[in-house]
């Protein structure tokens, strides 16, 4: 079956399994090298950014931390923050120090609330036009739509190479497309 014809829930399950196997196959040194290459790919595109939002990665997600740690003086790093499981995702100044409602680390509630102008977005899969499959909860789509109501926000999906599909992903009406995608070996301008 062509990837574009596979329903999103099935594609999500399949790609999550592939991501888990891929991440487990990496030695710590190789993983660090790939994440450093990702940072080299992304950083030239952040020169004018004031606030860059990343995410605290799950075990098998490519980490945005090498990007966030290399921001220039004057640039601020933000991470997702949730008041509770039903709340909209907001962004607060890094670092992540407390468990979120899901147990993933997030900044403390006392950290500054920030409106990023660049958001580094985790993904399960994406196509070259910027349609992405996430974990299926819609947190990023709702947060990005809200941020864009207040002005321009540039979104960059971060992925391992195999997560980029050549076949298109059917977007739902609420899906917010990515502006670009970065892997350790490629920058893909989507819009």
TrEMBL record:
GO molecular function: 5-formyltetrahydrofolate cyclo-ligase activity; ATP binding; metal ion binding
EC class: ligase
A Pfam family reported for this protein in Swiss-Prot or TrEMBL: 5-FTHF_cyc-lig
Keywords: ATP-binding, Ligase, Magnesium, Metal-binding, Nucleotide-binding
Binding site for ATP: 8-12, 132-140
Binding-site residues for substrate, renumbered to this chain: 61
InterPro entries in the record: FTHF_cligase, FTHF_cligase-like_sf, NagB/RpiA_transferase-like
Family that this chain belongs to: Belongs to the 5-formyltetrahydrofolate cyclo-ligase family.
Full protein name: 5-formyltetrahydrofolate cyclo-ligase
